[in-house]
């Protein structure tokens, strides 16, 4: 009877011979693949980060994902991560890349060509995504992708060699003499493998971080440019000298209640929701904005041209259509810029034009009816926010601010063009993705204090928040609060600069021990009270009464 070798009876399919002949475990191959993917990502970041132009391959892939994703994906991401949706997407792309790299490493044990082929496919994905990205350089992406593919493939091959032989050798060198029946000391191979893998992983972390920091470092150029800009004095006085302190500048609330949102929100606390995975860093010296389309006199303006025109300052509350009931994707600020009507009058809008389209330097577009400007609402090509030039996060050097419309149809940041067209001939970015063609802001209110789940002491306490219905004939005229099943109590309202801003509100309540529920509703200037019917944010904004539950202790 013949003897069957013990090795042939094993049920573990993990160890596979590499081209060198030594067995590499599945774990080693997966680690090698993940590390190689990390090195490839890092090289791509370094090349694009230190080039001084364009954005990273990861950024372009993320932007392509955002473009291809439907409205439900965007809504879900924003509802989960709020303003952290973009960092979450970047982290997700990196994690997926590492996982795919681990798979490529595992598959390369039997078929060494799979690793380079897989990295090549990822390189092509980066080039494809870059070709669709208005902020990226396709030529730079080709170079970065090629170097990333070479770095990833070489790292994977090298680590598998080390795992097989215990040292890094050339393909035609001593590794070919290694035979399965005379393997290198596995303990030595394991130590060498983890040493090299650790070094490659450290390189990936350091290089990737340096590349990312270099990309972010470009913002210092914009910050330096902003520091040199002196906004001209506006022709109007948006805030009277006699106005309450809350209106004089950002960060002050109308009522002395801890946790109440200030009437004018500081720029660094103002919400940010947009499709730009990488914040555009616009060179103000070369930037220009066109007014085109269905106009008699198309023209183009530089930033200096805009600053030379008469400026207006207005307080306007902006809201994102993705703001859930009680959400924080809403804010009030002082905006300064050139009235949009001034620019349209200069261009001479043709009679058939029914839509105003705003386009960003990154290709993002919005569109709203020309008729929206017939009621006198504030509409600005804004260059300032709260008395300073626009921050890069909020659209430097110029953006659109249109009162009473959700941002997805009106608030173009990093503005590059205003185009007149018809409602039938063009859909803004979000319309084909399932959102409503028109986006008037709905009457809403929010409870800031108390927080959900809070424990408060019995006795007199303040219930406070904000309410908004921005528009020249709307504004907030009444806010009512109900605790448990009690009667609706009218709240005291803070002052407002205009009907185009929110109003803070407050109710004093004598808190008694127990678990309680509070809800709020607002009434606007048309006499309409916000509905209690609950609706999701898509396709045209959430509805319902904001409710919070909290506990009062003796």
Description:
The protein has 554 residues and is α+β, with helices and mostly antiparallel strands. It has three domains: 13-217, no CATH class; 245-421, Oxidoreductase, molybdopterin-binding domain (Sulfite Oxidase, Chain A, domain 2), CATH 3.90.420; 444-553, Immunoglobulin-like (Sandwich), CATH 2.60.40.650. Helices cover 32% and strands 22% of the residues. The chain contains eleven helices and 21 strands. The strands form five sheets. The protein has a five-stranded mixed beta sheet with strand order 4-3-12-7-8. α1 packs antiparallel against α6, α2 packs across α4 and α6 packs antiparallel against α7 (186-217). Residues 1-22 and 169-183 have low confidence and may be disordered.
Through-space gap between termini: 87 Å
| Biggest sheet layout | 5 strands, mixed
Helix-strand makeup class: alpha+beta
Taken together, the total number of domains comes to 3
Task: Outline the low-pLDDT stretches.
Answer: 1-22, 169-183
The beta-strand count equals: 21
Q: What would you call the shape?
A: globular
So how many helices?
11
Strand order of the largest sheet: 4-3-12-7-8
Helix fraction by DSSP (H/I, runs of at least 4): 25-40%
Gyration radius, in Å: 29 Å
- Overall mean pLDDT: 87
Strand content: 15-25%
């Amino acid at each position: 009877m013949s003897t069957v070798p013990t090795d042939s009876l094993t049920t573990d399919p993990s160890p596979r011979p590499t081209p060198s002949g030594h067995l590499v475990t599945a774990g080693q191959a997966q680690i090698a693949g993940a590390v190689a993917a990390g090195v490839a990502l890092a090289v791509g970041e370094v090349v694009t980060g230190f080039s001084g132009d364009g954005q990273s391959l990861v950024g372009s892939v993320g932007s392509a994902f955002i473009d291809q994703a439907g409205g439900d994906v965007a809504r879900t991401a924003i509802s989960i991560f709020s303003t952290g949706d973009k960092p979450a997407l970047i982290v997700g792309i990196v994690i997926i890349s590492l996982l795919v790299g681990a798979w490529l490493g595992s598959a390369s044990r039997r078929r060494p060509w799979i690793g380079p082929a897989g990295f090549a496919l990822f390189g092509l994905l980066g080039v494809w995504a870059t070709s669709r990205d208005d902020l990226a350089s396709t030529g730079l992406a080709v170079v970065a992708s090629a170097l990333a593919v070479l770095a990833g493939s070489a790292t994977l091959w090298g680590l598998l060699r080390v795992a097989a032989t215990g040292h890094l050798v050339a393909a035609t060198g001593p590794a070919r003499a290694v035979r399965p029946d005379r393997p290198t000391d596995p303990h030595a191979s394991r130590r060498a493998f983890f040493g090299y893998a650790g070094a490659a992983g450290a390189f990936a972390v350091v290089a990737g971080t340096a590349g990312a920091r270099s990309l972010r470092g470009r913002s210092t150029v914009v910050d330096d440019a902003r520091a040199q800009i002196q906004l001209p004095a506006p022709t109007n006085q948006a805030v009277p000298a006699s106005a309450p302190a809350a209106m004089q500048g950002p960060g002050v609330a109308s009522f002395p209640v801890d946790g109440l949102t200030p009437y004018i929100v500081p720029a660094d606390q103002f919400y940010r929701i947009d499709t730009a995975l990488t914040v555009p860093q616009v060179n103000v010296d070369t930037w220009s904005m066109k007014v085109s389309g269905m106009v008699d006199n198309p023209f183009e303006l530089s930033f200096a041209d805009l600053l030379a025109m008469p400026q207006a300052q207005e307080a306007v509350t902006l809201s994102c259509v993705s703001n859930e009931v009680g959400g924080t994707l809403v804010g009030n600020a002082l905006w300064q810029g050139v009235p949009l009507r001034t620019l349209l009058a200069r261009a001479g809008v043709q009679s058939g034009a029914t839509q105003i389209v705003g386009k960003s330097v990154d290709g993002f577009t919005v569109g709203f009816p020309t008729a929206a400007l017939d009621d006198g609402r504030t509409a600005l090509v804004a260059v300032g926010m709260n008395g300073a030039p626009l921050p890069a996060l909020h659209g430097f050097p110029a953006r659109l601010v249109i009162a009473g419309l959700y941002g997805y149809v009106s608030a173009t940041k990093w503005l590059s063009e205003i185009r007149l067209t018809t409602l039938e001939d063009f859909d803004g970015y979000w319309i084909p993705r399932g959102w409503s063609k028109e986006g008037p802001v709905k009457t809403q209110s929010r409870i800031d204090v108390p927080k959900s789940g809070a424990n408060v002491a019995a006795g007199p306490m303040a219930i406070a928040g904000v309410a908004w219905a921005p528009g020249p004939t709307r504004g907030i005229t009444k806010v009512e609060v109900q605790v448990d099943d009690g009667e609706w109590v009218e709240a005291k309202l803070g002052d407002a600069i205009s009907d185009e801003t929110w109003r803070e509100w407050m109710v004093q309540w004598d808190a008694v021990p127990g678990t309680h529920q509070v809800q709020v509703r607002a009434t606007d200037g048309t006499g309409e009270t916000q509905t209690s019917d609950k609706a999701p944010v898509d396709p045209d904004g959430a509805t319902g009464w904001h409710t919070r539950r909290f506990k009062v202790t003796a």
